[in-house]
Design a protein that fits this description.
By secondary structure, the chain is α/β, with parallel strands linked by helices. The protein is built from 7 helices and 9 strands, in the order E-E-H-H-H-H-E-E-E-H-E-H-E-E-E-H. 36% of the residues lie in helices and 22% in strands. Strand 1 and strand 2 (10-15) form a beta hairpin. The N and C termini lie far apart (40 Å). This is Adenylate cyclase.
Length: 286
């Protein structure tokens, strides 16, 4: 089990399963049970099975088994011939669980003593044990793949580049929405490789996060807005994007790629598109 203990929301150490005591394991199991049954976390039945599996396997010291293939077969009932590159169900559900947990901990679960975290690019959860000082609370404000906006900004903080990503795929297009979620996740990872800070636009109900996003306007960095959408077309899918100045709204660059659904396995196709787009963004924002 990967464990991180935090004080005022900041991780200070990580340990393996063998060094975690029974009380901590029990606390994680209780936190999982609460997430599964509460109505405050937006989890489908499939999401719950996914979350229960990865947490239980991690607590049992079997984190090495938590792979896309194992999840697809053992959790989602795919056949032994399941190919995660051609069938993106695991990546789609992981993205949804990750977003649901982030939303919950930024709102109803802000005071939870134990947080179950799925970091981008991994299906193995980490567990954060928060022990804030009496009367203080500093919940994590942003689901951020590169760096967190936490606390006041020092006047001499080194300027850089920030990208604020908004997913605009029509939620009524279920297939396009799933691919859009994968596309956004892949873009976040690819852009972060260029040492660009990346933030996701939160839903309106996450007011604390929304306020933190507004504070980006006053930061010294160059801040850009990246709008992402996937649309169904006759030949397959259109992956569109637009990069603009976060403060003024001026469009800096935009484009789209039309791809047939069967050109490549979905995961490989989306990763390739994200890598290409990350290079364009880095050039335009540089």
């Amino acid at each position: 089990m990967i464990r991180s203990q935090s004080t005022e929301g900041k991780a200070v150490d990580e340990q393996s399963a063998s060094s975690c005591d029974t009380d901590e394991t029990t606390a994680v199991e209780a936190a999982l049970s609460a997430l599964i049954v509460t109505g405050n976390v937006r989890l489908s039945e499939r999401n719950r099975r996914f979350l229960s599996f990865v947490v239980t396997e991690t607590l049992a010291g079997r984190g090495q088994r938590i792979k896309a293939y194992t999840i697809g077969v053992d959790v989602f009932g795919r056949s032994k011939s399941f190919d995660p590159d051609r069938d993106p169900i695991v990546r789609i559900e992981a993205t949804r669980v990750r977003a649901a947990l982030a939303e919950y901990y930024d709102s109803f679960g802000a005071r939870d003593a134990v947080r179950i975290v799925l970091r981008p690019g991994s299906y193995v959860p980490t567990f954060e044990f928060s022990h804030p000082a009496s009367g203080s609370e500093r919940p994590r404000l942003l689901e951020n793949a590169a760096a967190a906006l936490d606390g006041p900004i020092a006047a001499d903080e080194r300027a850089g580049t920030v990208i604020v990503v908004t997913h605009r795929t029509d939620r009524r297009e279920r297939c396009s929405l799933g691919r859009g979620e994968m596309y956004v996740e892949a873009i976040i990872k690819a852009v972060a490789d260029f040492e660009i800070k990346v933030f996701l636009t939160p839903p309106p109900e996450r007011r604390m996060v929304t306020q933190a996003m507004r504070e980006l306007i006053h930061r010294p960095e160059a801040v850009f807005a990246l709008d992402i959408a996937v649309h169904g077309i006759a030949e397959g899918r259109r992956y569109s994007w637009s990069l603009s100045d976060f403060r003024t709204g001026e469009i800096k660059a935009s484009g789209f790629d039309d791809r047939a659904d069967d050109d490549l396995p979905a995961g490989a196709q989306i990763d390739a598109l994200a890598a290409e787009l990350a290079q364009r963004i880095a050039a335009s924002a540089g």
